[in-house]
Amino acid sequence: MSKIRIGVDVGGTFTDVLLMNVSTGETHRAKTPSTPEDQSKGILNGILAACEKAGVSPADIKELMHGTTVATNAVLERKGARVGLMTTDGYGQVLQIARSFVPGGLAGWIVWNKPEPLADLEDTVEVLERIGADGSIVRELNEDSVRQAIAKLKKRGVEAITVSLINSYANDAHEQRILAIFKEEWPEIPVSLSSDVLPEMREYERTVTTVANSYVRPTLSRYLSSLEKTLSENNIQASTKVLRSDGGLMSFDIAAEKPVNLMMSGPAGGVKGALWIAKKAGFKNLLTYDMGGTSTDVALIENGTPVVRRETRVGDVSVRASSLDVRTVGAGGGSIAKVPELTKALRVGPESAGAVPGPACYSKGGEEPTVTDANVVLGYLPVDLLGGEMQLDREASIRSVQKIADALGVSLEEAAAGIISIANENMFGALRLVSIEQGYDPRDFALIGFGGAGPLHANALGKLMGSWPVIIPPSPGVLCAYGDATTQIRNEAAKTQIAKLESLDAATLAAELQSLGESAAALLEEEGIAPEDRVYTYQMDLRYTGQGFEVPVKVTIEDLKKDGFQAAIAAFDTIHEQLFTFKLDLPHELVNLRAIVEQQEQELHVQELEKGTEDASEALVKRHDTFWYEGQNYEAAIYERAKLKQGNHIPGPAIVAEMDATTVILPKHEAVVDAFGNLIINPTN
After folding, report:
1. How far apart (Å, rounded) are the C-alpha atoms in residues 56 and 23?
2. Check: CATH 3.30.1490 for 490-599?
3. Could you say which DSSP state residue 660 is in?
4. Scanning 60, 234, 381, 522, which has its CA 20 to 30 A from the CA of 136?
5. Cβ neighbours for 510, distance < 8 A, ≥ 6 positions apart
6. CATH code of the domain made up of 266-324+423-482
7. CATH match for 78-215 among 3.40.1360, 3.40.390, 1.10.287, 3.30.1050
8. What region holds the HTH cro/C1-type domain (predicted)?
9. Contact present, 78 and 70 (Cβ < 8 Å)
């Protein structure tokens, strides 16, 4: 029997499901409305629809990989658990003191409202103990103070506990003992230990990360339990995994314990899917651009490797957890356009019409003009959406956008074009964050556009960025689900070790990294991943002596044993110069060691398209006389993507329609269909 794998991505507007036959490479896709009241319903609807298309039973599904925004939304909407925080005596205000950093300009401190911590000071308790920075016990744990603190937290009605003691990264004995006392006194409460979640120095970062873990833990645990129950009730006995922020996979059980690693789970799926598709197409340097109904996520991939950062930021909360460097902007197909009475200046987003009521053209009660409505007015989005399964109301879009035109005193088309231009500039700004502001030239990268709305805007963004070619993968609307279905299990282990490199022995350090690798590999061992199918990556967090921040540098065991720290120092200086435009002639200092273990990438069969000629007329559906661009109305050809063949050329202006997305090819541009069905768009002059 063929192995059936399911990838699921839940967005704010739609839930995307991809069913993959691992043996043949055959795929089937489903896109269903998200069900915010119970996301498992939308997931089940998508799975059943995909199974019906594939002609398989839900019982045939062997693996289910899921990217989720549940943890993200809990933080953004401040709908997480009430967290009780237990700290060392004298450190109860660790979250309030935080770091002396105020975002914004010179006057930022005047207008900036300091965000409320995820654990209230009233729900913070202190216990008598002290661990030294070297791991020695300075003051023995007073267990009576722990039991008194637990009694206080019970009265406060907290729903989850964080234990974060000073220097516990160096010695976790006291935190482990406190966990044992909780199991005696309050066994049902979920407890997160900072030495388990983030065993690294810096008490604020370690505490806020562990508190965030506790904050979303009950919510995510309930969500995953509900999903597993729904799957079981429908005879789906698949192995279930959830996507981590850093692009790896973890089991539902581990995810429920350490949900802080899922803060960017949803966007990570798109990056992994884009990487997988682009590798097959022969592109290694990519800017990924994922535009959905509510927001747009962008990332950079250099030489086939996504940029990973050691910090995850969700809203005004920053936690120390590895994640793909994905930046998000509130610009999506559902972003609402407004002309405030005070300024009379057009604004687009971040408020979104979402799935309900949605854009005006969806005929679900929405009346506000959105980016999707502007695309309909300009003729970029045909009225037959989702392969004819959904009809758009063009007249409703015209009525909604006309309100903007009247407010600005311009024509209907100019108002719609203005909405599109501002949305594009918002997304352009996000792309600059991951490219130009990180020392990369966007002209050295291809741009891959996906998501339900991404292909509508990708060609225009390619022009703004100078990033060519623009790549539109097959089924771009469900590429995040594709990424979920093609991702591998991943785990990491880290430890803090502060010392000047000149005082360290490289061979000894190599042995410590290998030991960390063995610790990280234990999870893969539990998942049944054979040793020969594991890939080990090692990092050292380095800085110049005297600096207050560090930069992760990839190292190899072979280089450390053969040439000492030469390669690591050279790599650090190069990265530092790229990020900050200078390097220093100072000694280098080690801060953290890290080992990452990942399942070997699986070679999945990919079906190639039937070869054709340059002539794409067999896929031509009709001529479209409404295509307004830069003050001129064009006649555009509409093509059915499912009928395109390898080698077909599609000159712009043109529209390529498919089940889950619509691609716009602008005038003076042309798309070529490659062997794997990607649309490769380049300017023609």
Report:
1. 14
2. yes
3. S
4. 522
5. 557, 560, 561
6. 3.30.420
7. 3.40.1360
8. 394-415
9. no
pLDDT digits (tens, 9 = 90+) for 203-247: 999 999 999 999 999 999 999 999 999 999 998 988 899 988 888
- Nearest CA to 27 out of 499, 604, 645, 525 is that of 604
Q: Encode pLDDT of 387-407 as tens digits.
A: 556 688 899 999 999 999 999
Report strand pairing: 534-544 vs 588-599.
Answer: antiparallel
Enter the tokens of residue 483. Answer: 């990424």
What's residue 13's pLDDT?
66
Q: How far apart are CA 495 and CA 490, in angstroms?
A: 18
* Integer Cα distance of 447 and 472 in angstroms: 9
- Helix 412-434 × helix 394-408 angle, to 10°: 90
Please classify residue 359 by burial: count the beta carbons closer than 10 Å to its beta carbon, then call 0-12 exposed, 13-18 middle and 19+ buried. Answer: buried
Q: How far is CA 60 from CA 71, 237, 265, in A?
A: 29, 9, 26
Distance CA 407, CA 642 (A): 41
Give the global pTM.
0.81
Evaluate whether the domain defined by 4-75+221-262 bears CATH number 3.30.420.40: yes
Who's near 612: CB < 8 A, 6+ residues apart?
618, 644, 645, 646, 647, 648, 673
pLDDT (0 to 100) of residue 401: 94
Q: Which residue has the tokens 């996504």?
A: 306
pLDDT of 604 reads: 66
Which stretches of the chain drop beneath a pLDDT of 50?
1, 386
φ, ψ at 620 (rounded to 5°)? -70, 130
Those residues whose C-beta lies under 8 Å from the C-beta of residue 61, and which sit 6 or more positions away, are 4, 5, 6, 19, 47, 51, 236, 238
- Strands (DSSP E) contained in 23-95 are 27-33, 61-67, 83-88
Pairwise CA distance, residues 632 & 634, whole Å: 6
**CATH topology match: 4-75+221-262 vs 266-324+423-482:** yes
CB 456 within 8 A of CB 381: yes
What is the chain's percent helix, strand, coil content, to nearest 5? 40, 30, 35
Which CA distances in Å does 458 have to 145, 288, 446, 655?
Answer: 59, 10, 11, 13
Q: Which helix (H) or strand (E) holds 126?
A: strand 124-127
Helices 173-185/143-156 angle, 10° precision: 50
What is residue 179's predicted lDDT score, i.e. its pLDDT? 97
H-assigned helices in 440-498: 454-465, 479-485
Residue type, 629: Y
Q: CA 396, CA 394: separation in Å to the nearest integer?
A: 5
pLDDT for position 194 = 95
CB 33 within 8 A of CB 186: no
Instruction: State the residue for tokens 């999945």.
Output: 604
630's CB contacts (< 8 A; 6+ apart) are: 417
What pLDDT shows up at residue 107?
Answer: 56
> Looking at the chain, how many residues does it have?
685
3-state secondary structure 285-315: CEEEEEECCCCEEEEEEECCEECEECCEEEC
Q: How far is 498 from 476, CA to CA, in rounded Å?
A: 45
- Cα separations in angstroms, 50 against 11, 39, 68, 322: 17, 17, 19, 32
pLDDT at position 147, please? 96
**Between β-strands 305-306 and 239-243, what pairing exists: parallel, antiparallel or unpaired?**
unpaired
